[in-house]
Design goal:
about 80 residues; 434 Repressor (Amino-terminal Domain); 4 helices
């Protein structure tokens, strides 16, 4: 059960990263360039294989021009 809760957080971040990236028409390579985060790390976060640190979440939010909380929003 606890493990599933952790995955829910990763899933929220992954879904919102992908949504925000696509809204801007960015590839993973462009997000990498904008954020300074390696493209393969961006890819693994979007596939829910990585648990990003607060620092990485902050860099993503700054790159997208949104508050960090937007990466945790439940959207459908």
């Amino acid at each position: 059960m606890e493990r599933e809760k952790r995955k829910k957080g990763r899933a929220l971040i992954a879904r919102n990263m992908k949504r925000l990236r696509k809204e801007r028409g960015w590839s993973q390579e462009e997000l990498s360039a904008q954020s300074g985060i390696h493209r393969t790390y961006v890819s693994t976060m979007e596939r829910k294989q990585r648990n990003p640190s607060v620092d990485v979440i902050e860099r993503l939010a700054e790159s997208f021009g949104v508050p960090m909380a937007d990466l945790f929003r439940e959207t459908r």
